[in-house]
Amino acid sequence: MPKREFHPPHIYEDNACYFLTASTRHHHAYLRTDDQRALVRDVLKAAVQDYGVTLYAWVILADHYHLLLRTGQSIPLYRFIKRLHGESAIRLNQLDQTPGRQVWYQYWDRFPRDERGFWSYFNYIHINPLKHGYVTMGEARPAPGPQPRQAARVAGADVPVEDLHTVLTQYRYSSYHYYLRKYGEEFLNDAWARYPIPDYTEYDDFPEAGARVG
Predict the structure, then answer these.
(1) CB 18 within 8 A of CB 55
(2) Strand 64-70 vs strand 17-24: parallel, antiparallel, or unpaired?
(3) pLDDT at res. 193
(4) Where are the domains of the chain?
(5) Are 162 and 169 in contact (CB under 8 A)?
(6) Torsion of CA 45, 51, 54, 56, to 10 degrees
(7) What's the CA gap between 44 and 25, in Å, rounded?
(8) Which of 3-7, 25-29, 88-92, 197-201 has the lowest mean pLDDT?
(9) pLDDT tens digit string along 144-162?
(10) Which fold would CATH assign to domain 17-213?
(11) Is 145 left (phi over 0), alpha (psi -120 to 50) or beta?
């Protein structure tokens, strides 16, 4: 039986998608615990459902998050962000007993220009826990013997995809687990191979001009 080919679905739509980054005030680690990150994840899930947003990829870290999404026709992005930041800030302050604390500082969006841009953002979001040290390649336990043929380009080096899967499964707060469960490793391997993970610095800078207060 011939080997089945896996191809990422063509879900990019012109002028509809956003790659979104938001940071906490002064990059304080307001989301350092599982309870805090789970709270933001749950608020995000509810806001996505209530505003008809299509969420393609997400990751929540201690001081920022990334989203890849498409908004509905009648809902501007700022309204979705206002709901996400407003409700999550209130609930985080209740959890931490810090009434009136400003949690969120800025959000910044980019538009994927084409399918390659879309999947580069997709891959970048899922690699973020490794980039920021929440998981490390030392956690991988590759089997002895020849390296697998498939590899992902990460920080200028080719990383065997088996190692990458082993590492990324250690971090709970991203959409990586959804795609692994629903589509399997071959789907993610194919996305990594076709659309290399871009240079890290390009997507975490917050330029003074054009930054939006959320």
Answers:
(1) no
(2) antiparallel
(3) 82
(4) 17-213
(5) no
(6) -40
(7) 19
(8) 3-7
(9) 445 545 666 665 566 777 7
(10) Alpha-Beta Plaits (3.30.70)
(11) left
For the purposes of burial, counting CB atoms within 10 Å of the CB of 145, is it exposed (0-12), middle (13-18) or buried (19 or more)? exposed
Q: pLDDT (tens digit, 9 = 90+) per residue, 55-109?
A: 999 999 999 999 999 987 767 888 999 999 999 999 999 999 999 999 999 888 8
User: Among residues 158, 176, 184, which one has the least CA distance to residue 4?
Assistant: 184
Q: Considering only CA atoms, which of 213, 200, 148, 178 is closest in space to residue 57?
A: 178
Question: Cα(first)–Cα(last) distance of the chain, in Å?
Answer: 53
Whether residue 66 contacts residue 58, with contact meaning beta carbons closer than 8 Å, is answered with yes
Residue appearing with tokens 């920080």 = 155
Inter-axis angle of helices 185-194 and 115-131, nearest 10:
110
29 burial level (CB within 10 Å; 0-12, 13-18, 19+): exposed
More confident residue, 203 or 183: 183
Q: Which amino acid appears at position 196 of this protein? A: P
Q: What is the pLDDT of residue 35?
A: 98
